[in-house]
Automatic annotation (TrEMBL):
Chain ranges passing through the membrane: none
Organism this protein belongs to: Zoogloea oryzae
Keyword Cell inner membrane: no
Signal peptide positions on this chain: none
UniProt-listed InterPro entries: AAA+_ATPase (IPR003593), ABC_transporter-like_ATP-bd (IPR003439), ABC_transporter-like_CS (IPR017871), MetN_ABC_transporter-like (IPR050086), P-loop_NTPase (IPR027417), PstB-like (IPR005670)
A GO MF label: ATP binding
Domain ABC transporter: 4-227
Membrane topology annotation: Peripheral membrane protein
Keyword terms of this UniProt record: ATP-binding, Cell membrane, Membrane, Nucleotide-binding, Phosphate transport, Transport
Record bears the keyword Cell membrane: yes
Main location: membrane
Compartments in which it is found: Cell membrane
Protein name (record): ABC transporter ATP-binding protein
Family as reported in the entry's similarity comment: Belongs to the ABC transporter superfamily.
Length: 237
């Protein structure tokens, strides 16, 4: 599946370019944090990578071929839960992969353990808090053992301890060999998690750099302004 090469991707809505000739290359390891202002096209890029949006032109090449049938998973900012138990939600993710019922159950139980939700396994998923829902959404993706995991602002509007729990899970998923591409507006989180940063503006990649270099010496004016704009609170303390 890697290197993942995106070339000159274009997608318009009502004549306005949302992806405007976007190109990007990702190697097979690590966590890439996708930064950029609201409306830059980050979510649209993630949706294009998992096949939910078909760009008008351009090319996405997964290690020399088309997108594989399985191996790419995505977690949305506001994941939808089935009206079922946590176990049921996780097991369902394995059905399309042809995993036998007994193995579906054991893998679902194991992954719920790892995200700290085993004690809620038979509860209704609809009754979970925001942080618990995100952990369940990560479990549903993780249980399929994706090679590439796309995370769209998985900690937006979560409290600090829920954010910490999600970050721990994301690191564990990465340690087990899953490539992660994740959006966030939390720059502290970006510095904690990222190996490298892709900065997008107006439907294009402006910059792709190792995390330390990106924050110490952003190469583009757009990235400098974004970093300054997102960090006013630092000046206050
Ligand atoms: N399905 C859609 N139909 C019409 N317009 C869309 C659709 N999806 C996204 N857009 C538009 O494309 C632009 C980019 O949206 P996108 O959600 O990718 O931005 P983003 O960089 O993820 O922003 P944010 O940081 O606010 O989440 C926005 O103007 C959005 O309104």
């Amino acid at each position: 599946m890697f290197p993942l090469k995106v070339t000159d991707l274009r997608w318009r809505v009502a004549g306005r370019a949302v992806l405007d000739g976007l190109s990007l290359e990702l190697g097979g390891d690590g966590i890439t944090i996708l930064l950029g202002p609201n409306g830059a096209g980050k979510s649209v890029l993630l949706r294009s990578l998992c096949g939910l949006i078909e760009p008008e032109s351009g090319h996405i090449d997964f290690g020399g071929g088309p997108r594989p049938e399985s191996g790419v998973a995505m977690v949305f900012q506001q994941p939808k839960m089935l009206r079922d138990s946590l176990l049921g939600n996780v097991e369902l993710a394995l059905r399309p992969l042809g995993v036998a019922a007994a193995e579906r159950r054991s893998r679902a139980q194991a992954v719920l353990e790892r995200v700290g939700l085993a004690h809620r396994a038979t509860d209704s998923a609809r009754g979970l808090s925001g942080g618990e829902r995100q952990r369940l959404a990560l479990a549903r993706a993780w249980v399929t053992r994706p090679r590439l995991l796309l995370l769209d602002e998985p900690t937006a509007s979560l409290d600090p301890s829920s954010v910490e729990a999600i970050e721990r899970i994301v690191r564990e998923i990465r340690t087990e060999g899953t490539r992660i591409l994740m959006t966030t507006h939390n720059l502290g989180q970006a510095t904690r998690l990222a190996d490298d940063v892709v900065f997008m503006d107006a439907g294009r990649v402006c910059e792709h750099a190792p995390v330390q270099r990106f924050f110490a010496r952003p190469a583009s004016q757009a990235a400098r302004l974004y970093i300054q704009g997102e960090l006013p609170w630092r000046m206050a303390f």
